[in-house]
Amino acid sequence: MAATAVAQLTPVPQENPRDKALQDYKKKILEHKEIEGRLKEIREQLKEFNIQYEKSENDLKALQSVGQIVGEVLKQLTEEKFIVKATNGPRYVVGCRRQLDKTKLKSGTRVALDMTTLTIMRYLPREVDPLVYNMSHEDPGDISYSMIGGLGEQIRELREVIELPLLNPELFQRVGITPPKGCLLYGPPGTGKTLLARAVASQIEANFLKVVSSAIVDKYIGESARLIREMFNYARDHQPCVIFMDEIDAIVWLVKTASTLKNYNSVHETRTFAAASDTTNETNRRVSNSSGL
């Protein structure tokens, strides 16, 4: 009798299609995130390459282009012709591009001239002395009147003299009085004179030009007067602007032992300062800081 053996087979478990689909989905999400990250990096690199490409294009154009002559308009002869003085000395009667607004071509305007035809090609900003340019980079800071203590009366007078004519000029026109051109802050050191000037410039959102008067006093006749003129011209071009002149007594000093040359230089600077600021005794106000902080 033959023995029969029956082998019992264990069934192989089948993978659930739903679980497999979820795993594939998660894997694809991870791959998608990786591809997104690489795409973002490639876009950043492409942006940097575009910037470098534009810079290279501009450099090539600058190397291939012909330079222009810097000149200054002296006088307008006709509607189309102007007398221009070049920086190298000669004067020319030149024309102007049609696209330019000829009403802006006044006496003293700096322009760029074509090398061959000497035609006025474009306007140029006013030439600024480096010393004056450095003065304009003084940041007044975010200072409010509430941060200043013990100077309530001085703040009121200062706002009346400086802030009110700039924010509400129609009040002075209605009354028929000339608004003040400036004021004199005097008092011992440390009483808040500079702090008040910074607060005014910060509150009216004006440009702040801090000038150390002792730095613009020069031994050569006319140099200090030129700096003062350029300083006020720069302020006019960047209105509204608050000019704070520290150590103002350095301009009007007068020493008995000084030579005649120094005395003449001081008087010349004082007259230039008065003419540039367009101030008179009637429109100047004095604000005392003697109470201090």
From TrEMBL:
SUPFAM superfamilies: P-loop containing nucleoside triphosphate hydrolases
Coiled-coil segments: 25-66
Domain AAA+ ATPase span(s) in chain numbering: 179-288
One Pfam family recorded for the sequence: Prot_ATP_ID_OB_C
A GO MF label: ATP hydrolysis activity
Gene3D superfamilies tied to this protein: Nucleic acid-binding proteins, P-loop containing nucleotide triphosphate hydrolases
GO cellular component: proteasome complex
Keywords carried by this UniProt record: ATP-binding, Coiled coil, Nucleotide-binding, Proteasome
Domain of life: Eukaryota
Family as reported in the entry's similarity comment: Belongs to the AAA ATPase family.
Protein name, entry field: 26S proteasome regulatory subunit 10B
